[in-house]
Predict the structure.
Amino acid sequence: MKQDVVPVQIRGILPANSGCALFVGNDEKVFVINVEPQMGAVIGMFLRDTPKERPLTHDLINRVFQGFGITVERVVITDLKNSTYFARLILQQQNEVARKIVELDARPSDCLALAAAQKKPIFVSAALFEQVEDMSEVLDKMNESGGEAEAD
């Protein structure tokens, strides 16, 4: 099941009182996914390779994956319904006998955290990418003014 997708990256993170804005996109367009403040902080830590005193939940998940020979292949942000984004986490497990691909429904924030932790590609469905509002100007202004964005 191969659908048309557009490669994107996390282009910036803007913490706010009620949440955190993740600017996701490419040179053509950037859109915002709002996540919980803690998730924004975790994703930022993974993007900056910040050492952590103790493993966080996504560190634990990555270690479990490693133990079972599972890697994140990619994440795909697939849809937007009632102001909620949906995503798929594509995993691969390779052993001596076979290669297995598993596709899971997951929150975009979890997918983005795992992709950032493992430096794996992020995609958005082409149909969704066409639909989302372009927030490139906001990100540019934020970066110019020295906002709290972390550009990738």
Observations:
- The helical segments are 37-48, 57-67, 108-118, 126-131, 136-144.
- The radius of gyration is 16 Å.
